[in-house]
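Tutorial, part two.
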Amino acid sequence: MINITKLKSHMYDVVGAIHEVHSELGAGLNESCYQEGFEMELTEQGIPFLREMSFYPKYHGRQMSTHFRIDFLCKNNIIVECKSVSELIPVHRAQLFNYMRLLRKPCGILVNFAPKFATIERYLFDTEDENIMGMDGSVIHRL
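Running the prediction step on this input gives:
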């Protein structure tokens, strides 16, 4: 059983690192610049992570040769997808939601570093009901 309070605390740490990166670098840079800064910040704060983690989805129980790469996996439970775009659109959310479902990870953060104030969306994945929820527990998306 996953401890929601602990997950929220972990997400709080990761969001703090995101804010630190945006505060330091500002708005309007390219995605790879923010990813590198985020990697440096996570290291400085001692937050465990994997960057550009590859995984292979399964089809009918068999591993496919196609692979996906997530930007960051923090504290082994939080997928972080970084963007630097004019605005987040549904396809960005769908990407994160699918990664959460395929990897069975309970938390996802979608961040857009491009605006003056970073846009940060946090989601939870209910593995039993296959629902994506907001931090208040409301169902956002049914998979």
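The radius of gyration is 15 Å. In part three we will examine how such features are distributed along the chain.
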